[in-house]
UniProtKB/TrEMBL annotation:
InterPro entries: Fe-transptr_FeoA-like (IPR007167), FeoA (IPR052713), FeoA_core_dom (IPR038157), Transcriptional_repressor_C (IPR008988). SMART domains: FeoA. It holds the Pfam family FeoA. Residues 1-74 form the Ferrous iron transporter FeoA-like domain. It comes from the Bacteria. It comes from Pseudoalteromonas byunsanensis. Keywords: Iron. GO terms for molecular function: transition metal ion binding. The keyword Iron applies. This is Ferrous iron transport protein A. The lineage of its organism: Bacteria, Pseudomonadati, Pseudomonadota, Gammaproteobacteria, Alteromonadales. The keyword Transmembrane does not apply.
Amino acid sequence: MTLNELKLQQKAVIAALNHQDIALASRIMALGLVPGETIELMNIAPMGCPLQVKVGDTLISVRKSDASLIALQTAS
């Protein structure tokens, strides 16, 4: 499952960043979206992009195209 497939208010754990562009992966990780962190989809913009996610106590907006690069494991 990837971040763009998560349902509203659903939680998951970031498993990996699937992107070959090291600069983009670094920017995503600098926002706190790192493997092992729990993430929750809080809101989706009316046109479907961006997605608002919560990591820890921080709310972050992520483009849908970038969200498709973040692999998740469902939280138990």
